[in-house]
Amino acid sequence: ETHQMSTQTTGRLYLIPNVLGDTAPLEVMPISVKKTIEALRCFVFEKEKAGRAFVKSISPNIPQDNITVHLLNKFTTEEDLTAMLLPLQNGEDMGLITDAGCPGVADPGASLVARAHANNMRVIPLVGPSSILLAVMAAGLNGQSFAFNGYLPIDKGERRKAIKQYEKKSIELNQTQVFIETPYRNNVLLDELSKALRPKTLLSVACDITLPTEFIKTATAEAWRNNKEDLHKRPTVFSLLGS
Predict the structure, then answer these.
(1) pTM for the whole thing?
(2) Per-residue pLDDT for 10 more than 70?
(3) What pLDDT does residue 7 have?
(4) Strand order in the sheet with 42-45
(5) What is the b/e burial string over 218-243, where b = at least 16 CB atoms within 10 angstroms of the residue's CB?
């Protein structure tokens, strides 16, 4: 007897992107996202309030009492993950929605996706905005080779050291280095980058991506020293290519 992978007895795990800020969902994602959400009754959110608000914004007709919600965040235990797989094991489709952007990318969702694969379940990623990819697209740096590094260290000395290391790595590999910062520290970081990087290193700042206030600019570290753009509390992705 042969078992084929295509025999679908378990549910499918849909990875559903969220908006990157206060944007009408269908301005930035295909109608297939709306159709998928409307067919689901079981969801995994990072925060319940944000997740429910997104489902409501894209499909106002879904009665909120009819949906089952699991939470996946930094407090989620191995037991919680096992429990989350039960609806899938019982043949029910499920949607994983992060607070912003794409699930599993710079996001706790990856642990559930890994579990689904380990249990031979089908994982279906849907198209939608990823701040990291959009920033790389708009930077004009090396789009053939890039690395996302998450957050820089908080300690000032450590952070400066990390900036120099990423610049060195970027030069050695001709690789764009991408990172983010807690939004209220953006201005301080931009100031530090403009001083710590070599004058001709290119730095791209992509802020409020897909929003009406979107600001994207690539210039040398030297040029950023006279920066007048206020990035305070605005979600920003930084990319550099050492020179």
Answers:
(1) 0.90
(2) yes
(3) 54
(4) 68-71, 42-45, 94-97, 12-16, 122-125
(5) bebbeebeebeeebeebbbbbbbbbe
